[in-house]
Amino acid sequence: GGVDLLEVYYYDSEGIRNFWGSFLQLATEMLSFSKPLIASITGHSPAGGCILACACDYRVMADNEKYQIGLNEMAVGIAPRESILLLYAFWIGTRKAYQYLLEGYLMNGKEAFDLGLVDELVPLDQTLAQAEQKMQQYLKLPASAFRQTKKALKGGLVKAMSVNYEADLDLLHTQLMSDESRAIMGQVV
C-alpha cells in the first residue's frame, strides 16, 4: 500500500517532518542497498508503496486488474520531489513519468508490466515464491560484481535522493502544511 493518510493527516508539523524525513531516508537506503532487493507486491501500491517498490531491483506483482500502482501524489495534494521523478522515470521513462505524475495516474499491473514498472505479473498466491526465486537467482551471481554493477547503475539516483535531502524535506514540509494540501488531504481522509 501507500502512506496511511488517515494517520499522517493528523500529524503536527514536527510529526510530518519526522515521518517524511524517515520515509525519504528509507527509500534512499533501499535504493543504495548493496545486496539484491526484491519487491513482492500483493495488492495496491500507490504513492509511498510505489516509491519503495521503485527502490528495489526487481518487482513481482500480483496479477489482478483491480490492483493499481503508481505515484498519485498530485491527486492528494502532494508534489513529488525531483528525486522521486527521477526514480520513477528510471523505470518507466521520463515522458511517461512526467505525464503520469502531473495527472496523479495509477496504472493496473498489465500497464505497469508493459512500461517496465513491474518485472513480473503472477497469481497472488505465487508472488512471494516468485520474488524468492528471483532473489535466489541474484544470490548465485558473484557478490562483488553484483554490488559494483548495482552501484554503477543506481549511483546517480542515490546521489539525486541524497544531495538535496534537507531542501527537499523543507519543501515537502512547507507544502504538506499549506492550506491547499491540508484541504485536499482532508477531503481524502
Question: Count of helical segments?
Answer: 10
- The Cα radius of gyration reads 17 Å
Structural class: mainly alpha
Helical percent range? 55-70%
Order of adjacent strands in the largest pleated sheet: 1-3-6
Give the helices and strands as they follow along the chain. HHEEHEEHHEHEHHHH
Multimeric organization: single chain
The parts where pLDDT drops under 50 for at least 5 residues are none
Outline: globular
Description:
This protein is mainly alpha-helical and 189 residues long. Helices cover 61% and strands 10% of the residues. It has ten helices and six strands, in the order ααββαββααβαβαααα. It has helices at 5-8, 13-32, 48-54, 82-92, 94-103, 109-115, 127-139, 143-163, 165-177, 179-188, and strands spanning 38-41, 45-46, 58-62, 68-70, 107-108, 120-122. Strands 1-3-6 form a three-stranded parallel sheet. Strands 2-4-5 form a three-stranded mixed sheet. Helix 2 runs antiparallel to helix 8 and helix 4 (82-92) crosses helix 5. The longest helix has 21 residues, at 143-163. It is globular and about 50 Å long. The mean pLDDT is 93.
